Amino acid sequence: MDTPSGRIAAYDEMVDRDGATRPHYRDFQQWLSSQTDDVMAARRVEADLSFRRVGITFSVAGDDAGTERLIPFDLVPRIIPAQEWRQLDAGLKQRVRALNMFIHDIYHGHDIVRAGIVPAEQVFMNAQYRPEMQDVDVAEDIYCNVAGIDVVRAGEGEFYVLEDNLRVPSGVSYMLENRKMSMRLLPDAFSRIKVKPVAHYPDLLLDNLREVAPGNIDDPTVVVLTPGQYNSAYFEHAFLAQQMGVELVEGRDLFVEQNTVYMRTTRGPRRVDVIYRRLDDDFLDPLSFRADSALGVPGLLSVYRAGRITLANAIGTGIADDKSTYLYVPDMIRFYLGEEPILQNVPTWRCARPDELSHVLAHMHELVVKEVHGAGGYGMLVGPSSTRAQVEAFKERVRANPAAYIAQPTLALSTVPTYVETGVAPRHVDLRPYVLCGKNLRTVPGGLCRVALTEGSLVVNSSQGGGTKDTWVLEE
């Protein structure tokens, strides 16, 4: 198995092998070299204070104290040249188009299963498969209206897809707030560098949601459904509702009557047509899923099955963002689109297969091992940065339930310049661009760039101590 290896030196996105600044970073490097340490330090303090004032914090799962933490913002942007973004944009749209076709297929004709490309057990025995959605038609046949695709650079700078986030992908509010902060703190840099805008994302999102309203509704009512203020991503839910100019609601604000969803308002009930839900499937309808859920709307599934409400993303999309399903996405692209994948997967071992399990157990100290349903950096082991005791303990977890894990090589993620305590230094990054699926596929140029602030660390998740950066995609 040919792999981009962690033994290869990380690709530096700003400096080439000869120590020269790459062309797309030259203007910024000239600006950066003219800034004093005191000025940069003052800007970093101002950024932290601003984020705290706005309330851009998150809570960490498992933190019983419910502590709200600030995600560190790095002043130095990640810069992507226009031609590289064109390749990414094409690959992202190709991938999400195929994933939507896959989800429609497995809830209808099962063509890819009957063709022997995706095993039946991978679909029908998967915890994310929702039999309640079998033969249910959704608006425009779009199941994933908002996708966040995690991409990394490794090897000689090639892009790889690390994960597909299709259930309730988060982080876009940080992309937007990071851009605001960059424009506020680095106005002179923006004056000399032409950067593609991202501020129109909420408008694109609203247009996208209105396009998939059920029936022939001229002026559909869109709402954002949140679990509530104690959810770790509540800031984002409130932010997006405010930016789109729609109501932020909890399950108790909605009710079902005569096979229609209504919102309680001070002027009486108002019909709802599209719900941008930031709530997992299990909690959406206590009559159909978890009976103990106080977060959902009783009867919602029956309205949905009747085609009288649009849920974005659709119930059952989790089958396609499962990390074990990820392995089959290149084959989905070939099967449904008749094309070769533009973006490659990271080579992956399935622990459910005995021969691949043996390899993983023998080489776990070299690999990244993940739970197939895990998220946020939890339920994973980064072998090279773990102790022998941690590796042995994780082996026992994997042996106990092999099907729950996959493994990947430890990639030498690319580095970008980052402002740390000692000055500007390279740190590893990933990128989560967002793809919107309405009647057309749309992206904004950039995404959520996460950075591992600790020297040598490959874990970029905010819950594990990572930070964020603005992403500048250059104009042509």
Outline:
The chain is α+β, with helices and mostly antiparallel strands and 476 residues long. It is 30% helix and 22% strand.
Can you describe what's shown?
This protein is of the alpha+beta class and 476 residues long. The chain folds into two domains: 23-214 and 309-346 and 429-473, no CATH class; 348-410, Dna Ligase, domain 1 (2-Layer Sandwich). Helices cover 30% and strands 22% of the residues. It contains 14 helices and 23 strands. The chain has helices at residues 26-33, 37-54, 82-106, 111-114, 120-124, 172-185, 187-192, 201-211, 234-244, 300-305, 318-321, 329-337, 354-363, 388-400, and strands at 57-59, 68-70, 73-80, 146-154, 158-165, 222-225, 247-249, 254-257, 260-263, 270-271, 274-277, 310-312, 344-345, 349-350, 367-371, 380-382, 405-409, 415-420, 423-432, 434-437, 441-443, 448-451, 467-473. The strands form six sheets. It has a five-stranded mixed β-sheet. A hairpin with a 3-residue loop joins strand 4 and strand 5 (158-165). Helix 3 (82-106) packs across helix 12 (329-337). The radius of gyration is 22 Å and the shape is globular. The model is unreliable at 1-7 and 60-65 (pLDDT under 50).
Radius of gyration: 22 Å
Q: Give the DSSP E fraction (strand runs of 2 or more residues).
A: 15-25%
Low-confidence stretches: 1-7, 60-65
Mean model confidence by pLDDT: 91
Helix tally equals 14
Categorize the overall geometry: globular
The number of distinct β-strands equals: 23
The total domain count is 2
Secondary-structure-derived class: alpha+beta
Helix fraction, binned, reads 25-40%
Give me the side-by-side strand order of the main sheet: 3-23-22-19-18
- Main sheet attributes: strand count, strand direction, barrel closure: 5 strands, mixed
In whole angstroms, the N-to-C terminal distance is: 37 Å
